[in-house]
UniProtKB/TrEMBL annotation:
InterPro entries: AAA+_ATPase, ABC_SmlMolc_Importer, ABC_transporter-like_ATP-bd, ABC_transporter-like_CS, Mo/tungstate-bd_C_term_dom, P-loop_NTPase, Sulph_transpt1, TOBE-like
Keyword terms, alphabetized: ATP-binding, Cell membrane, Membrane, Nucleotide-binding, Sulfate transport, Translocase, Transport
Domain ABC transporter, first and last residues per copy: 2-232
Entry keyword annotation includes Transit peptide: no
Protein name, entry field: Sulfate ABC transporter ATP-binding protein
Organism: Rhodococcus indonesiensis
Amino acid sequence: MITVTGARKNYGDFAALDDVDIEIPSGSLTALLGPSGSGKSTLLRSIAGLETLDDGIVRIGGDDVTGVTPQKRDIGFVFQHYAAFKHMTVRENVAFGLKIRKRPKTEINRRVDELLGIVGLDGFQQRYPAQLSGGQRQRMALARALAVDPKVLLLDEPFGALDAKVRADLRTWLRRLHDEVHVTTVLVTHDQEEALDVADRIAVMNRGRIEQVGTPQDLYDRPANDFVMSFLGSVSKLNGKLVRPHDIRLGRESALARDAGTAGSVGITRATVERVVHLGFEVRVELRNAATGEDFTAQVTRGDARALGLAPGETVYARATEEPALPETTRVPIG
Ligand SMILES: Nc1ncnc2c1ncn2[C@@H]1O[C@H](COP(=O)(O)OP(=O)(O)OP(=O)(O)O)[C@@H](O)[C@H]1O
């Protein structure tokens, strides 16, 4: 378990961390998710000991490590731009931490081979970092961070510099690696899809504070506030309320009216189709509210779009299928 209590970090007048409390359970893969500048890296680096807090306590496995140097915190760290030793082979890079700990050579070789197997780099032992792709280099970085059996693995946008396809592959792979190794992992990302995909818990950060912590499903289904709702998935505004585009039903008058009770009943909005964008299986429909002139977006299946014959200029009727589940409270207990 990692526990951060009352963490504050200021840069001049600017509060990068503004009284942050968080508990990260042992064996979890927790994502710190938030926009640029929200304090994710500062929090991660404080857990690593690379940043000194102005106030607050960091505990790892019950021990107060607030004043302990990074080297003695028993952590593995991977950055976006991993600084590999260029003159060393993959084997030597991964073995580095074990070598300086003076482990026996046979043990080092066994461990390095095992790790390279886990990260899918078997057979790459003799290559140099320059002979690896970006994705392979990040996997080598993970193997190196894991080599010394850290209590905690800290990842700061580890896939940030890679293209979308490689990122997606590495996500799946990180998830599998975590299921195998179970090391308590904290991943910093600004990419909600990445967080939803790999993490079992997500802490949403905004302006140096934690807005909400929970499972991906909790956060998506029961966001504590508009910020969390907008950050986890797309949102649209229908008659002043935030709604997920998937949760907007479209219909021609009679069908939707039958569905909703009577024509013109509360909650049915007349709208004009502005644009229809085909996104593969789904279709994004950009609409204008006939009463308010506000633009909003619905997302429907290709089949529904075809059945409705959606085209720019057409009039349709929209209804939110669910009330957005926004409770009164804006904060949720942590842990
Ligand atoms: N050494 C520093 N000196 C001054 N300001 C800093 C320093 N480090 C970070 N900051 C500021 O603190 C804020 C939080 O930075 P941090 O890197 O934690 O954000 P982040 O959420 O990780 O964002 P990003 O995704 O862009 O890295 C930012 O506004 C940043 O400009």
